[in-house]
Amino acid sequence: MKEKAKIMSDDEMERVLKRLALEILEKNKGMSNSLLVGIQRRGNYLANRLKQYMREMEQEKVITGVLDITLYRDDLSLLHDQPVVHSTGIPVDITGKNVILVDDVLYTGRTVRAALDALMDLGRPSSVQLCVLIDRGHRELPIHPDFVGKKIPTSKNEIVEVRVVELDGVDEVVICERGE
Amino acid sequence: MEWKHKNLIDLDCWEKEEILHLIDQAGNMEDLLNRPIKKVPALRGKLIVNLFFEPSTRTRVSFELAEKMLSADVVNWSASGSSTAKGETLRDTAWTLESMGADAIVVRHGAVGAASYLQRKLKHAAVFNAGDGAHAHPTQALLDIYTASKHYSSLEGLRIAIVGDIVHSRVARSNMIGFRTMGCDVVVSGPKTLMPPELDYYGVRYFKDPREAVKGANIVYLLRIQRERQEQGLFPSLDEYFKLFGADEELISLAEKDALIMHPGPINRRVEIDSLVADGPQSVILEQVRSGVAVRMALLYLCLGGAR
């Protein structure tokens, strides 16, 4: 896999996430009846980042949770190896709350479809909103984000990689070319 | 990690890393047991047949729960009242089930090697051994390792004392292999008449005196004593067995302070275990039952998924 271009640096990522935090606060009039749910694994770190910025801006308590969608994937019988199951942990009952799903890249929409199914098994939220750092297009399902960090036109041969300090040692977004 | 197993017949071909990966996945599966809706769609469309030639409650129910929680379709086939009673062979039964489209067969049979035989005869379906004679009960060992791992960050170097009827016990054989693979020091005790000749093969040591075996143990694993063994004259009486080998508070006090007390169930109170021990603070017997569902979910998920 060959790295082609860096499309977001750590400074830019911070600015974008701060704007997203503000937009989410604005739309939901604070976070008192809402929570951030990060999709494992990188969405989880982005959700924590949003929480930190929201706290700095509003001095308000923000609830976050993590959601693993592996067991809800629609391609389990197509993949050669079983993907690793990570933990799901949402500290409150989501029924009646606004759930803001947070993920790194929105592509086909299939992860979000799985996340919606997983959420519905946990309760009946009053609304579900979608926040993504990168929207790279090529949707295969009728799914639309509510909060977008950056829209990037891509080709299907490319891979968008979001890297976070906690896992990758650096905050950045790069486009890679899929290997032969 | 790349998962190479599509069946589980015996743990002797499993590496430590594979067991660690399975128990890690089981930990995430166990969260499901706490949810209002205990079901995920991971194995939707897979047909699993539970083929039980011997009576079993907890293993069968545990497999069935695991299968249903992963959304597989489940058929229970028991020997009594089925075509086996009409003289159908194991092979023909298995071929019949495979022709019906079974993706996996969970089998318990009184004959050693039944699961392995079935695997060789089947073209597509995966086989999971739920107990074959006195040979192996690998999912029991996996759930025991999983339960122990929840209490110890690593099992490496821990001492486990298995006390009871080793020679007739598939649970003991699978646990000796499993806990040895995890790097434990495994010791056994029980009447000499109930010891198999091949203890060296398993790399375990025998102590005639259970107090010697339990001394310093981190896990004390008690096996069920079957009453018919006494009728066969392998030991004089159940009372005497309890006096010599039964786990009472005195015996347990010789183990490490917070040693775990384990038993595969169902328990015989005042035969192999005293109620004060079975229901005491160190006992994880009920935790083992709960672990069984999570471990079997992880096993089915890992082995049945993917392109076959």
Your description of this structure?
The complex is a heterodimer of chains A (180) and B (308). Chain A is α/β, with parallel strands linked by helices and 180 residues long. Chain A has a single domain (2-73, 84-177), classed as Rossmann fold (3-Layer(aba) Sandwich). Chain A is 29% helix and 29% strand. Chain A has 4 helices and 8 strands. Chain A has helices at 10-28, 42-58, 110-122, 165-168; strands spanning 2-8, 34-39, 63-67, 98-106, 127-135, 147-151, 158-163, 172-177. A 5-stranded parallel sheet of chain A has the order 3-2-4-5-6. Chain A has a 3-stranded antiparallel sheet with strand order 1-8-7. In chain A, strand 2, helix 2 and strand 3 (63-67) form a beta-alpha-beta unit. The model of chain A has no long low-confidence stretch (mean pLDDT 95). Chain B has 308 residues and is of the alpha/beta class. Chain B has 2 domains: 11-136 and 289-304, Rossmann fold (3-Layer(aba) Sandwich); 138-287, Aspartate/ornithine carbamoyltransferase (Rossmann fold, 3-Layer(aba) Sandwich). Helix content of chain B is 39%, strand content 15%. Chain B has helices at residues 16-30, 58-69, 90-99, 114-121, 138-151, 170-181, 199-202, 210-214, 227-231, 238-245, 249-252, 275-278, 285-304; strands at residues 47-52, 73-78, 104-109, 126-132, 159-163, 185-189, 205-207, 219-222, 260-262. In chain B, strands 7-6-5-8-9 form a 5-stranded parallel sheet. Chain B has a 4-stranded parallel sheet with strand order 2-1-3-4, with helices on both faces. In chain B, helix 5 (138-151) crosses helix 6. The longest helix of chain B is centred in the last third of the chain and has 20 residues, at 285-304. The interface between A and B is medium-sized, with 23 and 23 residues.
